[in-house]
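debug: dumping io for the single-chain case to check the tokenizer round-trip. Nothing else runs in this session.
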Amino acid sequence: MPAQHPATGKTLIIGLGNPIVADDSVGLRVAAELKSRLADRPGVDVTEDYWGGLRLMERMIGYDRAIVIDAICTGAPPGTIHHLTTASVPTQKSASAHDVNLPTALAFGRRAGMHLPADEDVRLIGIEADDLINFSEHCTPAVAAAIPRSVQEAIQLLDSMLEGQNS
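debug: decoded output
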């Protein structure tokens, strides 16, 4: 049985991506803007990372809530902003820890007794990408145009998650 951990009240916002691959950097860019906009918010940490899977899960240890921002490919028009939950991300069966997705990594961490946000307290913002192949320090125009909206939607999501905590 996993250990019970006291609530910390802390929220992690993490932008994922690769800074030198066109639209794959969008999560990092949104997080950088959020870091400056939310610098004075107590209990809210904003960071960037380049890895998913188990490393992403490890970054969430000690937090009660998390918002993950990343590029996504669903076939929607580039720049479309998707709001997802861990329940809407397919789980996978794999023998390799290198390709573990977030729901699988969180389940693994909880079974190991780590203090992690509950599934309902992890939200994902996916920005539809156009180019995840080419090296570039810039997002494509449609994805770049979605950054300000993504920042606003992340702040609104954070506020609604924190309001839900206080209800």
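debug: round-trip ok. Strands lie at 11-16, 44-49, 65-72, 81-85, 122-128.
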